[in-house]
Structure to design on (630 residues):
């Protein structure tokens, strides 16, 4: 091709759209081989992007102190595509995997397996922690409370602990690498929810029940420690590279 | 370049350069027509498969006015053919629309 | 957007000067004919203009403001989980209202098998046009909403979005996730099949084991210590009357707070 065209490739075929960076292969260079509607669409977006970029560079419109991202229009417009896809997925799921209905309720025949919906498994699992119910020797080896009460109390404790999180974890750290401890707690919590769910369906699990019970408590701790170690290791280089400029503006407390 | 011998004057087929406004007309209306034709084609296919659809009953009563009563299998076959034809027409309209391009859009390569 | 007629391009004159095959000529002629009668393109051009106008005053995003290296926050898809759960809630509400036209919360014995409630569900699934799909949509949107709410909570936790000005919304979120599970539970009981009945039994036992107020709670929520017609009636009212009002209000407040405070950014 001629020199003229070589020059044009960078300036987007004479439409006046200049790629943001000379070094990297830009979207325009990738797209310039195409024709028809994709090409036009590309030009629309590129033009919008360029106008937008220029305006932003000139603008003093928002210099925010609060670290937040505008819900409207940024977040909602970006969500639009994802959510419409999501509704499609929902309908597809409904069409391909319709629910069944079991036998009618019969109080006189207890089924061998009683289960709530999956999202209540963790809570159901908390009802099966009878072995942890403290037995006090003072009252003659009797348990302090009924096993059922203990299970309900465990639920209250878990939900309460989650509710306390924002009051315990303060400071400006946001990413998991910035706060390995809390990320580890979180990973441990997620694992605990999973293992509890497995515990709640223990009669369906092809596994020794006692082993399952022990794993329910060991696995979260192991995962938590692993997370902590990994994040601690990642932390220094990651934060230096990625957030150099950011922390110059807003040094971590 | 593979696309260097692309013709812009029309006769040979692939690309016809048209004014921008006409390009928009072509794109919008060919897409609309194609969508309607394809959807309608699927409706006809549905009518061919489902014995009790609205379209099928309408057509049957229409034929009844002309004192015709085709057999179920014949009606199904006709619906199926009409449906496939409609889908093909939609595709054809769309494909034909893609050869019209506005200025500076057709040049491939760098 | 003026009412003044725009300069019309002389399409037909242009076509004369161009070498076109008969098919192309006919094609263009038809489309131009349509275009002159249905001014769709004009409206789309209005939209195009609007598109550029709304683009003018977008505030700087986080990465632009701090000129960060990564222009795309790769956890971003997880930020849509809140929208997902809201949307699934809306879908569930619409399909649920339609299901409500046909469902009867009656534990009386039905003519054929089971209770009236159960036979209504089988009617919806077997005889009602689109009823099978309707129940499927309702169930799946409920499942997906619960899943999305759980994942939403994890996202908020791991990006530290519950921090300083947003503690209240975190607490509100915990209330909402509990109510969502309540929604799921009450809905799970409504078909009144074996699963529902025995899940209800667990619920009664759980509420009975609450210290001090257990019996009172069981009476209030389940209408007694064993399951029966009152239980089904109460679950129905909770599911279609009480919870929708409460949850819709709380979701509105939850989103309003997010709107006012902005999306917490992950740095």
């Amino acid at each position: 091709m001629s020199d003229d065209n070589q020059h044009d490739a960078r300036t987007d075929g004479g439409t006046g759209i200049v790629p943001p960076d000379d070094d990297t292969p830009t979207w325009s260079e990738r797209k310039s081989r195409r024709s028809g509607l994709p090409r036009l669409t590309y030009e629309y977006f590129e033009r919008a992007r360029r106008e937008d970029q220029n305006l932003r560079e000139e603008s003093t419109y928002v210099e925010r102190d609060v670290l937040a991202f505008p819900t409207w229009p940024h977040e909602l417009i970006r969500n639009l595509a994802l959510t419409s896809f999501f509704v499609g997925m929902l309908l597809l799921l409904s069409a391909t995997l319709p629910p069944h209905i079991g036998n009618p309720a019969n109080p006189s025949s207890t089924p061998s397996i009683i289960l709530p919906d999956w999202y209540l498994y963790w809570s159901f699992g908390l009802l099966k922690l009878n072995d942890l119910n403290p037995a006090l020797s003072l009252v003659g080896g009797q348990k302090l409370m009924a096993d059922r009460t203990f299970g309900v109390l465990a639920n209250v404790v878990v939900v309460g602990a989650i509710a306390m999180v924002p009051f315990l974890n303060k400071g400006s750290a946001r990413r998991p690498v910035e706060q390995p401890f809390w990320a580890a707690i979180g990973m441990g919590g997620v694992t605990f929810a999973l293992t509890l769910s497995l515990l709640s369906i223990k009669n369906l699990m092809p596994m020794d029940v006692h082993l399952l019970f022990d794993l329910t408590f060991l696995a979260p701790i192991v995962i938590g420690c692993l997370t902590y170690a990994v994040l601690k290791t990642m932390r220094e280089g990651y934060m230096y590279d990625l957030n150099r400029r950011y922390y110059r503006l807003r040094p971590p407390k | 370049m593979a696309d260097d011998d692309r013709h812009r004057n029309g006769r040979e087929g692939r690309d016809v350069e048209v004014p921008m406004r006409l390009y928009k007309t072509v794109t919008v209306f060919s897409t609309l027509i194609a969508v309607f034709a394809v959807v309608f084609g699927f409706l006809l296919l549905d009518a061919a498969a489902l014995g009790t659809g609205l379209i099928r009953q309408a057509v049957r009563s229409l034929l009844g006015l002309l004192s015709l009563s085709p057999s179920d299998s014949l009606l199904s076959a006709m619906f199926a053919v009409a449906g496939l034809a409609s889908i093909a027409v939609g595709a054809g309209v769309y494909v034909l629309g893609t050869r019209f391009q506005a200025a500076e859009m057709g040049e491939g390569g760098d | 957007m003026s009412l003044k007629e725009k300069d019309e391009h002389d399409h037909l004159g242009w076509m004369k000067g161009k070498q076109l095959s008969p098919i192309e000529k006919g094609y263009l002629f038809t489309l131009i004919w349509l275009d002159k009668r249905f001014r769709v393109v004009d409206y789309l051009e209005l939209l195009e203009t609007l598109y550029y106008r709304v683009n003018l005053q977008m505030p700087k995003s986080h990465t632009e403001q701090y000129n960060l290296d990564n222009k795309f926050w790769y956890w971003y898809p997880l930020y849509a989980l809140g929208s997902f759960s809201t949307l699934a809630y809306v879908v569930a509400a619409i399909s649920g209202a339609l299901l409500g036209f046909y469902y009867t919360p009656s534990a009386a014995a039905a003519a054929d098998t089971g209770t009236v409630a159960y036979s209504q569900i089988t009617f919806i699934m077997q005889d009602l046009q689109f009823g099978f799909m309707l129940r499927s949509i309702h169930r799946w949107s409920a499942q997906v909403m619960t899943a999305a709410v759980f994942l939403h909570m994890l996202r908020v936790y791991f990006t530290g979005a519950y921090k300083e000005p947003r503690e209240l919304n975190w607490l509100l979120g915990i209330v909402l996730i509990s109510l969502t599970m309540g929604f799921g539970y009450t809905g799970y009981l409504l078909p009144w099949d074996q699963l529902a009945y025995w899940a209800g039994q667990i619920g009664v036992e759980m509420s009975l084991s609450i210290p001090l107020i257990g019996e009172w709670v069981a009476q209030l929520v389940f209408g007694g210590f064993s399951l029966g017609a009152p239980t089904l009636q109460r679950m129905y009212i909770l599911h279609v009357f009480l919870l929708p009002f409460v949850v819709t209000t709380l979701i509105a407040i939850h989103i309003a707070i997010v709107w006012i405070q902005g999306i917490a950014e992950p740095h």
About this structure: Chain C has a mean pLDDT of 85.
